[in-house]
Write a structure and sequence with these properties.
Number of helices: 0
Helix content: under 10%
Order of helices and strands: EEEEEEEEEEE
Radius of gyration: 13 Å
Length: 128
């Protein structure tokens, strides 16, 4: 069993930055790929980014590439999503998710079904 708790959301102006954190408790964090998804009102949950178990590989949605950076600290059971140059369209609830696999391949990491554990989410609101 893995529990995930996100933090760091809030209200920020367009062009600003936020850093989301996700702390994991339970077994096996360091052997799991970790992802972030987001869901805006009235929209489906969408993939944001994923990092493999070592932190050596990351993949991003095109909409956030070059602006968001995902990292992890396995010693602290933490995952961090640094979000820069935020836009109003980034407004959403952001969810941290843990896979049961150490690595996720292309075509799989962007699908929510690839992740077994989910946090409750943290709200990010970007004003124009």
């Amino acid at each position: 069993q893995v529990q995930l708790v996100e933090s760091g959301g809030g209200l920020v102006q367009s062009g600003g930055s936020l850093r989301l954190s996700c702390v994991a408790s339970g077994r096996g964090f360091s052997s799991r790929a970790m992802g972030w998804f987001r869901q805006a009102p009235g929209k489906e949950r969408e993939f944001v980014a994923v990092i493999n178990w070592t932190g050596g590989s990351t993949y991003y949605a095109d909409s956030v590439k070059g602006r968001f950076t995902l990292s992890r600290d396995n010693a602290k059971n933490m995952v961090y999503l640094q979000m820069n140059t935020l836009k109003p369209e980034d407004t959403a609830v952001y969810f941290c998710a843990a896979s049961t696999s150490p690595n996720l391949s292309m075509g799989v990491y962007g699908k929510s079904v690839s992740y077994y554990y989910w946090g409750q989410g943290t709200q990010v609101t970007v004003s124009s």
